[in-house]
Write a sequence for this structure.
């Protein structure tokens, strides 16, 4: 059973879990592509994309866990 199946579809966590997985995949893909290209500006762009996606993935995880004051009820 997938983690998101623990939550009803009307629970935002059902959707944030999927988004987090997608963001993690994009971050990993961007980091892998850095090693495949020679253009330093493009490498910086791809690394920035990876960092931003990883940060967004952490934010969704914090929401799911209610670990930040902003996400607590």
């Amino acid at each position: 059973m997938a983690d998101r199946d623990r939550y009803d579809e009307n629970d935002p966590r059902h959707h944030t879990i999927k988004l987090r997985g997608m963001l993690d995949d994009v971050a990993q893909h961007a980091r892998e592509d850095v090693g495949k290209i020679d253009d330093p500006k493009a490498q910086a762009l791809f690394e920035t994309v990876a960092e931003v996606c990883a940060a967004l993935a952490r934010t969704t995880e914090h929401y799911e866990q209610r670990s930040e004051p902003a996400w607590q009820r």
